[in-house]
Amino acid sequence: MVNIFTIHNTLLGFVMKLAGMRPQRVEISPGTIINFWVPTQTQTQTKTRTNLKKNVVFLHGFAGNGIFTWQLQVLALAKKYSIYVPDFLFFGDSITDRADRSPEFQAECVAKGLKKLGVETCTLVGLSYGGMVGFKMAQLFPNLVESMVVSCSVMALTESVSSESLRRIGFETWSDFLLPETVEGVKAMFDVGSYKLPNVPDWLFKHFLEVMFSNRKERKELLEALVVCDKDFNVPQYPQRVGLLWGQNDKIFNMETASNLKKQLGERATLESIEKAGHLVQLERPCVYNDHLKKILSSLLEDK
């Protein structure tokens, strides 16, 4: 039986090209390549025009690559914005021979890739792991990142936040949760990530397991590098405006976590939530999520 996600990814690439997107691999440095989905006409090609679209960069979570995670949002927003969707290192077609597994290195590679694509300023939209990398980008490259939309994430995965989240979802390590080795493990991952897991056949989870978990060793190292000591983390002062958009029933980073994040960010942040939605809010309730996202982006960008 042909893998359904292999077919889906092929069809998705075709649909994205119809929507004005194309894949492009960008060499960051020798041995390090980031794969992006970019507008058919990039900013480099259209820089002489006066009416340029605003740039929106989507940063994915740990359960899938960029275009798989954000496919429904890209299709909804590609006409209005210049959309860029990178694959983080060891996801999709992004690779490196460097040993650095930190979110800072991910942030640096994406930022350098965007610069090579002609992107001077942008708004980030980050989910979970992508939100954490996004916060690093906002901190390290404030001239690039003008604003952010963050869903179901934290500034940094401190030991205290990590242990409490793992206790809440019933796993000992993030690798146990996010790098499943069995069909039951994949089902458990989606069950935790959802408000209500749809009744789908086991072969669908089996197909997901077969194609979505390459580079296991490197991804495990990414997860290990993500957790930081509480005493080593100081809340940065971000100049950017941040819109927080949450699934009300997120079991991983719950609404208390969202409220704490808003307090950390202060007056420059807003918080909205979507009922009957979990951690994978953008896939579980895409129409509602897209409506909220469009309004937040308009608020962040239309007055610029």
Question: Can you walk through the features of this model?
Answer:
- Helix 4 packs across helix 5.
- It is globular and about 45 Å long.
- The chain has helices at 4-18, 43-46, 66-77, 103-116, 129-140, 159-169, 174-178, 183-193, 202-211, 216-226, 255-265, 281-284, 286-301, and strands at residues 21-29, 32-39, 55-59, 82-86, 95-96, 122-127, 145-151, 157-158, 227-228, 241-247, 269-274.
- The termini are far apart.
- The longest helix has 16 residues, at 286-301.
- The mean pLDDT is 95.
- It is an alpha/beta fold.
DSSP strand count: 11
Whole-angstrom Rg: 18 Å
Query: How can the largest sheet be summarized?
Result: 9 strands, mixed
> What's the overall geometry?
globular
Mean pLDDT: 95
Head-to-tail CA distance between termini = 51 Å
Low-confidence parts? none
